[in-house]
Design goal:
alpha/beta; binds zinc ion; binds N-carbamoyl-L-aspartate; about 350 residues
């Protein structure tokens, strides 16, 4: 715990067991080197998404990507990337065997083809993956689901609910022991679905879906930096998510979905989906939990429930946040370009304690 200079009254601090990020996009190359430090400063481990170009579809590719992530970490950083495989129509069951045996792959990501950024190699018809899902069920390998239909005829605000009813519900029944994470849920319907689902079904929740409703995308004009998928929903959805995150139910845990894109790709006539939040991730969850009067539940949401779901030990070390406002810069370096972070030029209420751990 930090002491005030001069031994004054203690600062408003929050000390938590070190958390993990159960859904993050770290990218590759110079972009990876630019962003991974933010995640590693806060989180002990992270489930790293496989939607690179080309996608991480094999255990060998996951091993190579893990090496690149470790090489991009600042010297002396303790951070463990947990890799994932990108499921395609062509994934073979023995790739799951290799992934499991290698010990570094902790989940397999299902992107419905065309549903989101870098999902074009994804699954065109879930029935094509049944043999792989059966092997995952047998080996206890979690399926991580981008839960949105890619059907462009479905209203963009209804794509999560549509997928949930038409695809996810039958899938969870067909594979009754498959461990499933419904990623970045955004609706009251999804909260109710997960809360009532069979054992072995969980969900991640992002900071932006706790802090904003869809009005943020249209505040005074089109705001590309508030565009992510699944898209922000209504206020009643936000409130249901906040209730789920702060409710103490171990099925709901932290996953930022921090998804950096170069400025020009965001500030464009056809803006990419994805919000970058890694530079303030835990601080933003603290804001959301404080708004609900439930800072006492942040530690379990951020540090316990995800580790328990994935069968990994909770961390022994701690992290401290201080209730002190700071302002993220207008941009961060992003390899060859620049990145506009969430909350650029606007205050964040909590900051990481530094230099007094
Ligand atoms: C993600 C990305 O940019 O990789 N974008 C996003 O809006 N969340 C892809 C994804 O997770 O859907
Ligand atoms: Zn994502």
């Amino acid at each position: 715990r930090c002491a005030q200079p001069g031994g004054q009254a203690p600062m408003n601090t929050l000390t938590l067991q070190r958390p993990d990020d159960w859904h993050v996009h770290l990218r590759d190359g110079a972009a990876l080197a630019a962003v991974v430090k933010f995640t590693a400063q806060r989180f002990g481990r992270a489930i790293v998404m496989p939607n690179l170009k080309p996608a991480v579809t094999t255990a060998a590719a996951a091993r190579a990507y893990r090496d690149r992530i470790l090489a991009a970490l600042p010297a002396g950083t303790r951070f463990e990337p947990l890799l994932t495989l990108y499921l395609t129509d062509a994934t073979a069951p023995d790739e799951i065997d290799r992934a499991k045996a290698g010990g570094i792959v902790h989940g397999v990501k299902l992107y419905p083809a065309g549903a989101t950024t870098h999902s074009d190699e994804g699954v065109t018809d879930i029935s094509r993956t049944y043999r792989v899902l059966a092997r995952m069920q047998e080996l206890g390998m979690p399926l991580l689901v981008h839960g949105e239909t890619a059907n462009a005829d479905v209203d963009v605000f209804d794509r999560e609910t549509h997928f949930m009813e038409a695809q996810l519900r039958p899938l969870i029944e067909r594979f009754p022991a498959l461990r499933v994470v419904f990623e970045h849920i955004t609706t009251a319907d999804a909260v109710a679905f997960v809360a009532a689902a069979r054992p072995g079904v969980a969900a991640t929740i992002t900071p932006q879906h706790l802090l904003h409703n869809r009005n943020a995308i249209f505040a005074g004009g089109i705001r590309p930096h508030y565009y992510c998928l699944p898209i922000l929903k209504r206020e009643r959805d936000r409130q249901a998510l906040l209730g789920a995150a702060t409710g103490g139910n171990p099925r709901f845990f932290l996953g930022t979905d921090s998804a950096p894109h170069e400025r020009a790709a965001k500030q464009s006539a056809c803006c990419c989906a994805g919000m970058f939040t890694a530079h303030a991730a835990l601080e933003l969850y603290a804001e959301a939990f404080e708004s609900a009067g439930r800072l006492d539940r942040l530690e379990a949401f951020a540090g316990h429930f995800g580790a328990d779901f994935y069968g990994l030990p909770r961390h022994e070390d701690k992290i401290t946040l201080i209730k002190e406002s700071w302002t993220p810069p207008e941009t961060y370096d992003f390899g060859d370009g620049e990145l506009v972070p969430y909350r650029a030029g606007e205050p964040v209420a909590w900051r990481l304690a530094g230099g007094c751990a």
